[in-house]
Write a structure and sequence with these properties.
Layout lengths: L13 E8 L2 E10 L4 E8 L4 E5 L5 H7 L4 E7 L10 H8 L3 E3 L13 E2 L5 E4 L2 E7 L8 E6 L4 E6 L2 E2 L2 E2 L6 H15 L7 E4 L5 E2 H4 L3 H7 L2
Parallel strand pairs: 4-5, 5-6, 6-7, 11-14
Antiparallel strand pairs: 1-2, 2-3, 3-4, 8-9, 9-10, 10-11, 12-13, 14-15
Length: 221
C-alpha cells in the first residue's frame, strides 16, 4: 500500500491508509465521487469486517462496489446539502445499512435518515467506536466524525472545515459566527496532529490550520 497523502484525483481518485485503534487494524478509504469532487470515506474494522461509510455522496455504482467487500453497519451523512447524499438511497438499498444525520438537516434531504443523532453520541463499528460532533454553521445539523487512533485522532469534517478555512456560510453573519464557534470550541480543542478529512479536496491537520483562526474570523468567511 502506497503512502497516504490525502490527495486523490477529482472524480476518480481512491486512496487507502492503515491505522491502529486499540491495537486493532483499521483501514480508511477515501474516494472522490461526482462532479463536485465529493469525498466519501469508509472506516473499516478489519478484524470484524464491519464498516461505516461517511457521505454516500454520488456515483452509486462506485460506492456500492466500494462497500461490497465489507459488512456496512452505518452510513453517516455529514450534512443535508444535496451533493452529499445523491447515492444514499442506492447504497442503503444494497446494504441495509441505517443512515444517521444531525439535527435540523432532514428538511434539506429527499432520503429520510433512520436516526437523528446528538452531539457526543457514539457509533459502534466492530471493535471500535466513533464519536459524533455537532458543528453547526455550514448547516444547522452539520456533524463531524471523530476516530481516536493510537497514533493520532482522525477527524472527518464534511463541509465544516477545509484546508484554508471554514465551509461556506452563504453571506450569513449569524451562520459564520456559529461555524467559527464550532471550530474554536469543538474541533480546535483537539491536538494539532489531528488529521482532517474534508468533504471535498485534500486533507490537512488541525496544526496546519490553527494559526489562521484569527485571520478567518477577521475576513468574515
Amino acid at each position: 500500500m502506497s503512502e497516504y497523502s490525502g490527495h486523490v484525483e477529482a472524480g476518480t481518485g481512491l486512496a487507502r491508509r492503515r491505522i491502529t485503534v486499540g491495537g486493532a487494524e483499521v483501514e480508511i478509504t477515501k474516494r472522490s465521487v461526482g462532479p463536485m469532487d465529493n469525498n466519501a470515506y469508509l472506516i473499516h474494522d478489519l478484524e470484524s469486517g464491519e464498516a461505516l461509510l461517511i457521505d454516500a455522496a454520488n456515483d452509486p455504482a462506485t460506492l456500492t462496489e466500494l462497500v461490497a467487500a465489507v459488512r456496512l453497519v452505518g452510513i453517516h451523512t455529514t450534512h443535508g446539502h444535496f451533493d452529499h447524499w445523491q447515492a444514499l438511497d442506492a447504497v442503503r438499498a444494497a446494504t441495509g445499512a441505517p443512515v444517521t444525520l444531525g439535527p435540523g438537516d432532514q428538511e434539506m434531504m429527499e432520503p429520510r435518515a433512520d436516526r437523528i443523532v446528538a452531539h457526543g453520541e457514539r457509533l459502534t463499528v466492530g471493535g471500535l467506536e466513533v464519536e459524533l460532533l455537532h458543528t453547526p454553521g455550514h448547516t444547522p445539523g452539520s456533524v463531524c466524525v471523530l476516530l481516536r487512533g493510537d497514533d493520532r485522532a482522525h477527524l472527518f469534517t464534511g463541509d465544516t472545515l477545509f484546508p484554508g478555512g471554514p465551509g461556506n456560510t452563504f453571506g450569513s453573519a449569524d451562520a459564520f459566527a456559529q461555524i467559527m464557534e464550532s471550530l474554536r470550541t469543538v474541533l480546535f480543542v483537539l491536538p494539532d496532529d489531528t488529521w482532517v478529512y474534508p468533504g471535498h479536496g485534500d486533507d490537512t491537520t488541525l496544526g496546519a490550520e490553527r494559526p489562521s483562526l484569527d485571520e478567518w474570523q477577521a475576513r468574515g468567511w
